[in-house]
UniProtKB/TrEMBL annotation:
GO biological process: negative regulation of DNA-templated transcription
Boundaries of every HTH tetR-type domain copy: 38-98
Species this protein is from: Fontibacillus phaseoli
InterPro entries cross-referenced by the UniProt entry: Homeodomain-like_sf (IPR009057), HTH-type_TetR-like_transc_reg (IPR050109), HTH_TetR (IPR001647), Repressor_TetR_C (IPR004111), Tet_transcr_reg_TetR-rel_C_sf (IPR036271)
Protein name: TetR family transcriptional regulator
Feature: DNA-binding region: 61-80
Molecular function GO terms recorded: DNA-binding transcription factor activity; transcription cis-regulatory region binding
Keyword tags: DNA-binding, Transcription, Transcription regulation
Keyword Iron: no
PROSITE patterns with a match to the protein in the record: HTH_TETR_2
Amino acid sequence: MDQEKAPQTENSAIEKLPGGVKLSWGLVKQPQRGPKRELSIAQIVETAVNLADAEGLAAVSMGRVASELGFTAMSLYRYIPSKGDLLLLMQDSVSNIAIPPVEEEMDWRDSMRDFVRSSMNVFREHPWFGDIPITSSPVTPNLLRIVDWGLRCMRNFALNDYEKMSIVVLLSSFARSSGIIQRDVDRVKAAGSGQEQNGDPDYGSALKMLVTEDRYPDLYPVLVSGAYTEENQEFDSAASDFEFGLERILDGVECYLDEKSR
């Protein structure tokens, strides 16, 4: 009896998945009725992604996407049940990133560097990606491919599954936060609103007048050195912050591995 019930339980679990998740796995049939079946889920998602890339996430609505395609919003709902489902499909679509082939001799630190940099670049190439709130663990095909890649970096680690997943979450979280910061820096540069342009304030000079040693005893010497406002070329932009942070995370993983091996 238990064996007969198992498939029904699994099917029930799949049926309860959100519409967008089922669509991402190809578990929903394309509608047989509609505007001469001239639309497809792939077309709708591609159009929405292009719109978000060009104008931001706020520009994406079922009506606007339908208009770009020359159809009515009702036509889109026959393919994708809601805007939430569309956003989920957009996320999965741009997560279809190139994953390098397995190289048995590749150093695990190099593998993790590639994993984090590629994950971070999604936020830079598609600035709207980080504006969509996280509502669950990755459940769509392309996002799971990225998780699988992260775990592959630790294929030979003598760690349990919980430890490996925790490291993937750590690396992914760092990639997300760094990607959003770099995305914002990219936006500032693209807008031409650097400190030297358009009469923008010289924050470094102003802060050196406002920040006193007695009130900010630990910040003051950092500010004077030029590191806080990146006046000192030794401290070169958010890119260096990212590289420094990534290396310290990898150092931490290495120390943890050494500790576990004792």
